[in-house]
Amino acid sequence: MGAARSLDAEESRQVKQRVSELAPWFHNYEVAKDIWTNAGGASPGRDYPARRWSHIKPWFDELPGKSCLDVGCSSGFFSLKAMELGAASVLGVDSGEQARATEQARFAAEILRLPATFKTVSVYDLAQLGRTFDVVVFMGVLYHLRHPLLALEALRKVCGGTLILQTITTPSAGRLAEVPGVSKDVQLNSPPMLDRRFPSAQFIEGGLAGDGSCWFVPNVEGVAAMLRSCGFKPKDFVFPNVQEVFVRCTVD
After folding, report:
1. What residues form DSSP beta bridges with 238?
2. Which of 48, 61, 90, 228 stands 20 to 30 A from 80 (CA)?
3. Is 111 exposed, middle or buried (CB count within 10 Å of its CB: 0-12, 13-18, 19+)?
4. Residue among 35, 120, 43, 129 at smallest CA distance from 76
5. What CATH number should be reported for the domain whose range is 48-251?
């Protein structure tokens, strides 16, 4: 984190102790000079979320002076990065599934002197925030949801400008390859429906690589179709690998 500052010996000791007390951290970042939140590299690894940040960094150029909502903020890296890069205000929310995530984020915000706010709120309950945001960040959440369309509809109600989404997908060609006319009325067992590019999602009943919190893994075309159906306009796609996509959307 660019805002990481040097501490004296006693401050450094206290921060290290608190980082240890709040473990495990899902995000690894520098909370103070030479003090990292997940220095040991526990899952998802020492390079997370840096490996995701490298792909979407240019999309954060539009944040200065704008309001940002980070849904599924976990330990707060993207919320704090948005604040560091000049967002007028940042709210990070998480459902509470990761133990102490919002507490970690609040602690990091205090040490980094970045005035982001963090709350425990489910994506399904975003309407209770009572406002809209210029930019909404929604990464690493979609495939963990039992009700993905309900969540996207909730996001649309609070998104006033741009949505930045990340999800895992079934294997893709590294591009959006939609069936012509896919957004129009189709017939059961018609050629479009039998095309592998037809929007679809795999349902995960018994867990994914030992993770019982995963429910749907869409194909890239399914991601685009779900976004459109909920009032978003997918504009830009980034494919870090054949089973992951970042999408930047505007709203209708």
Report:
1. 246
2. 228
3. buried
4. 120
5. 3.40.50.150
Residue 163's DSSP bridge partners are 136, 249
Return the number of other C-beta atoms located less than 10 Å from residue 209's C-beta: 6
For 106, the token pair is 């609040």
CB-neighbour burial class of residue 62 (10 A; exposed 0-12, middle 13-18, buried 19+) = middle
Calculate mean pLDDT across residues 143-164. 97
Please report which confidence band the pLDDT of residue 77 belongs to, taking 50, 70 and 90 as the band edges.
very high
> Whole-angstrom Cα distance, residue 222 to residue 196?
11
> Cα dist. 111→78, 108, 189, 234, 235 in Å?
16, 5, 58, 36, 36
CA 65 to chain centre: 21
- pTM as predicted: 0.94
Query: Which contacts of 189-198 are long-range, i.e. CB under 8 A and separated by 24 or more positions?
Result: 197/221
Q: HEC states along 69-111?
A: EEECCCCCHHHHHHHHCCCCEEEEEECCCCCCHHHHHHHHHHH
Assigned token pair, 19:
């980082």
Q: Please name the residues in contact with 25: beta carbons below 8 A apart, sequence gap of 6 or more.
A: 19, 37, 38, 42, 75, 104
Q: Hey, is 175 helix, strand or coil?
A: coil
Q: How far is CA 37 from CA 5, 27, 74, 139, 246, in A?
A: 14, 7, 13, 20, 25
- Is there a cis peptide before residue 115, judged by omega within 30 degrees of 0? no
